[in-house]
Amino acid sequence: MVEVAEPQPGGRAGLLAILSLGNFAIGMGAFVVIGILTPLASNLAMSNAEAGLVLTVYAIAYAVCSPLLVSLTGALPRRVVLVAGLSLFLLAAVLSAVAISPATLFAARIVAAAGAGIYTPVAAAVAVSCSAPAQRGRALSTVFFGLTLAQVLGVPIGSWAGYTYGWQAAFWIVAVITGVSLAGVIALVPRRVPFQPTSLTSLGKVLSAPRIMLAVTFTISFLGANYILYTYIAPLLEARMGFGRNGVTFMLTLFGLGAVVGNILGGFLTDRVGGFRTLIVLCVAQIMVLPMFSLLPFPEALVAAAMFGWSVVGWSFMVPQQARLIELAPDQQNIVLSLNSACIYLGASLGSALGALVISTWSIAAAGVAAAIAMSAAFVHLLLSASLQQE
Questions:
Q1: pLDDT at 10 > cutoff 60
Q2: Cα 35 → chain centroid
Q3: Residue 391 is part of which domain span?
Q4: 242 in Cβ contact with 352 (< 8 Å)
């Protein structure tokens, strides 16, 4: 019989909502840089390529810290770990808001990545532990919805605030939301949550399995290709379409709405055609849509349609990839999914770095074509991974 923790008086719905709010804060804090790249770069005397490294530093730190910290804190009470993660993230948001140099901002982003790397996977585990078996899928969906909603609301709001009041305003908003989440976690998360302890040994077993790791690292290939373009989409729209604050905010809002549709579509396709076939469709669709952004300017309606469609096929990725990994390693699913989360940020960091190289070597308009080429390489990665699983 599986033990289920009893939530505090706020109830299970309140618990899931506050865990989701924490993920909203983390998603906004991680990606709001994309919407404020231009004012941030101007204020701190950086180029767009250098400012993009703010996301790269965060992503690399997350990829390194998350599996290690989750393993090292594997014996601590879940509530303690959640509070520690959000406290670090809150501290990092404040440090980012008051940063007066690129070095200070980069250091704050490393602290933020450590906090997020602890919080997000542990929040998922708490949601499962506090839910009956038949409700766990819905519980996970609710908790991770915060990350998706951050794309719909958090990044556009942060972008608007950054252009209107200065880029620091976006991080102050993140700090406030994180503080509310922290108070909610303290009030609503049960003191005793049953969990399966993890260790560095279990992590090492998965890392030493080539068949599993080739499948896990497809996340790096797919998302890395996307972030070559996504990291620099705001300055690209400014340069090629002449958009200002309102135009960039509107396009990022459309991208966020596409993310919500993509999450739903990914689950729908996975249930009907399977994870692997869904991933094939998504790769092909990305290869077709990404080069369009190197051909700007277009009529604004067409650009809006391209942004929405690109987001839909990009954010349809997570459900089929996770389903595929669980099917591949059902006995190691916690570790595998933790590594998959790390690969999300590693892919983002790699894509951001490649994007910086592309725009520094050629021009910002080349990012779309470069992303399509990288997505073609991701497609080959997927096929190689599938062939290895069949051996």
A1: no
A2: 15
A3: 201-391
A4: no
